[in-house]
Amino acid sequence: MLFVLSAPSGAGKTTVADRLLKTCPRVRRIITATTRPKREGEEHGVDYIFMDKTEFERRTEEGYFLEYANVYGNYYGTPKDQVLKNEQEGVDSLLVIDVQGASKIREVYPESVLIFLMPPSLEELKRRLLSRGYGRENLEQRLQKAEEEIACARHFDYIVVNEFIDKTVEAIHTIIVAHRYRREVFLKRMNIGDTTLVRIIMEGSCKMFKVSTF
Fold this sequence. Notes:
Order of helices and strands: EHEEEHEEHEHEHHEHHH
CATH superfamily: P-loop containing nucleotide triphosphate hydrolases
Strand content: 15-25%
Shape: globular
Low-confidence stretches: none
CATH topology: Rossmann fold
Helix content: 40-55%
Mean pLDDT: 87
Strand order of the largest sheet: 2-7-1-8-9
Distance between the termini: 20 Å
Number of domains: 1
């Protein structure tokens, strides 16, 4: 499965993702590539894959990315090879990207699961952005962008309000575990081993339900 976690800037998606990965051993985060400068404390290959613009554009032409976008003047892209590697090893992928990236992932990867992380309120979002040291002009730009992104939440599969981080992480963990047992996922995974039960589910005679869901 490919799980996509998106939120407006300042809503806490990176913090939530870091906590979530500690509770979900069979989930790996996809490391996003970016052309933005490395910030203090960030590590190449851990926080982001840092590239210059020339390399990023070359990789784009080579089909290296599942999706890519320009955000606040910098490129961000999702490396295709990480997702394929996780699929081959039977591990779920977690992608932490903005709403624009999530929409593109849904186009190229329709079976992806989109989770929108909602701030408790716009006032709280503003407070969090101010605590990051954004100036007034940049702050207003980000708040306007946040409203545009929140309007897109209705296109996501799940919406989780990030008020208390422990409850937020628990909710997303529950979503991931529950989604692994959806009929389509269950049948796909069982099909790898003994196919007898899968064949019975798909082809056997069920007299209790009148309308077929296949």
